[in-house]
Amino acid sequence: MSVSKNRIDSVFKPASVVLVGASDRPGSLGNLVRTNLAEAGFPGPVHFVNPAHETVGGQPAFASVRDLPAAVDLAVIVTPAATVPDVITDCAERGVRGAVVISTGFREAGPEGQALEHEIKRRARRSGLRILGPGSLGILRTDDKLNAAAGPLEPMPGRLALVSQSGALCAAMLDWARFRHVGFSTVISTGNGVDIGFGEILDFLVRDPGTDSIMLYTEGIGDARRFMSALRAAARVKPVVVMKAGRHAQRPDAAAFHSGSLVGSDDVFDAAMRRAGVLRIRDFHDFFTATATLGSGVRVKGRRVAIVSNAGGPGTIAADRATDRWLQLSALAEQTERRLQDILPPNVAAGNPVYVRGEVDPGQFAAATGLCLEDANVDAVVAILTPHAQRDPQEFAAALVAEVAKHRKPVFTCWLGGESIAASRKLFAEHKVPSYTTPEAAVDAIAALALHASNQEQLLQVPEPLACATAPDRSAAQRVIDGALAAGQEWLDPAESKAVLAAFEIPILRSRAATTVDEAASVAEQIGYPVAMKILSPDIPHKTDVGGVRLNLADQDNLRKVHALMMDSVAHARPDARIEGVLIEPMFRHRHGRELMIGVVRDPVFGPAISFGLGGTLVEVIRDRAVALPPLNAYLARDLIRRTRAGQALQPLRGMPAANEPAVEEILLRVSELVCEMPDIGAIDLNPVVVTDEGAMVMDARIGVSRSSPTARPYQHMAIHPYPSGLVQRIELQGGVPATIRPIRPEDAAIESAFVHGLSEQSKFLRFMFTLHDLSPGMLSRFTQIDYDRELALVGVVESPDGEEQIGVARYITLEDEETCEFAIVVGDAWQGMGLARQLFGALIDAARDTRLKVMTGVTLRENSRMLELARANGFRLKTDEDDPSLVQMILELRPGGV
Question: pLDDT (tens digit, 9 = 90+) per residue, 37-63?
């Protein structure tokens, strides 16, 4: 475990605590936190610091942290803001590993507070002390009996973690959760987040065996790459729910292009959460509902729902809500319908919802629910009970709990009422059966979990570069962009935009510029009538708004007449605009065409985002769009299309044949590659993109540009690192055996599992340093579904009759300092001594250097002579581990100043 990770664990899982600003005074912050620490029963040493008192809470108080008898893991600071920098210095000098600053009065207090915040950050970083806050509500860990927080309530024990930038939300959530019997493993309030942020907190919670699910409330994201990296890593292992405040912020340049006016910051955040595999929640009601659902451990695998209700109205309400939430009311199998008729009262109507009638007894109600659960067409059941005076609702709850225990599919309950059903809800909570106060809330929970399952599919997607017939001409595109930037342009002109698109094999309708009417007529003669004519002006982004687009010009006379009319119209509408001439294009003749729009916006937090929807002149009125983060692959492109009305318009429609959807997917994939590879592109409008049954063509294009940082790492402009295809290389082993070294992919799970299974016991022990027979599903997922921004695994593969066979793997993981990586390597027993280890290790070291890492480290057993020899040959410095003489540390300086 790295030093940084040790310090993080000391903050969230401390063995000892000091409260700085402890007090006995009723109503004071120091007294509240002191009381919480005592009542939680924290088992480790707890010290108090208060220079004004000799004792606090009946035990001695120290005048300063420097006076403590021994170093402690965690300092909880509640003193006035002006004193905090000196307290941080005292903590660093006494060897305190981390601090929670509950004190307020920093950036929210103005310039003086901002200066104080900067100072505590500077002093902490200089010493290596880690800080949570300032302005944090604190930390609660139920398993560790730690309540180092300024909240009024102690959470119930559970396996759900809550992480929030808002202390007030933490307090409200704890109050709500206790009433509903929802427990927590961890509650962490980040406050202003000057040091420890969401990324490291998520990393800790993923490792925490007491946490099964994570809820995150954010008001703003700083480092999107770090946030997305940690979020995706967490979501691979545990369900994550996110809520964000400030959903309607807009970019200042939104009106400059169609995509900008359609796609807001919240759309991009939503796309990021989809791609991270997490569940995005939009309001407090749903946030609380998701908390209860996740706390129960329930998951759904599909969108097909059956509804069982003893009253018609609530069942109909649930059915309507299911349709609104894009769930599918299951068509029950004939056998299910017959068996329901056998157990229910006479004259019960067949179908879904299943109205079991008010006179049924608890056993009938539970049995009907069980039959729906057994139906192969059902993924989840909503069970709704309206209590009757003649029946005890708790008897129904008990019968249903017993029935649910027999099945693997989930049931979401809604017992309508107040005091009369309180005992039933308590029973459901005790048996982890989700319970809701309204039918709508129960259905919303299923929809949320179904969306979570869908997002998990997106998480697994690792797009590779397009296998184009010809590779994109990146240098040609860059020359166009460089020329525009050198001229001070923010937008490429139409010809330049189309040249960039052409370099990436995107089908475009070619256009030619003409500065005079005579030149326009000459160009039209060369192209061939009929033609289209469009105004050419850097100041007019939307040509149709000023009468700057004229179509179907049949001959020269027609063109000259329309040219004069166009110039008059444009001059009247935009007398300030610079007119550079016109564009002449051939008329694109098509039947059954649909007009679409593909756009790119550059979000200030998450970088480029791709939008798709219906296009044309009414694009802002129609407002049809879905958004996705690049890179895309075919699965993600299809998902983007099908989340829009445009996707429906591509189907056969009123005598028109289906449009060529694969052609649209291809353009989306090429646009994705364009924005991945060209960081200077800031915005794109392709509108309209006309698609027919034969293909698709970009009719008009507008591209915005801005210079990226010359020192930026590859793909730093993106929130998600693409598949590093540049690391694929063909090699030759001893004896002329051909092999390939390439980055690992999620679909390599089978060959990775077979590789580890086939290792000898000695090879497994030397690699993992403990006895391992096979990889668990969790380990297999962790090894193959990696984030290329934080880690890299290079596999050696050879072709076999059954496909690829893995013969070796080398990987590194970047540590929290973001300058050091830790490596591991293993080669299959049958392939050792053939030169694979040397080539794998060399490729891994080169890749680490290219990502600007400074140090590569590793640890191996002293008996692993082959590894030690390989490390020496690659320039590693070896030294005996200080804590365990049987281990050897291997250290390589990748670049000057690395160690």
Answer: 999 999 999 999 999 888 998 899 999
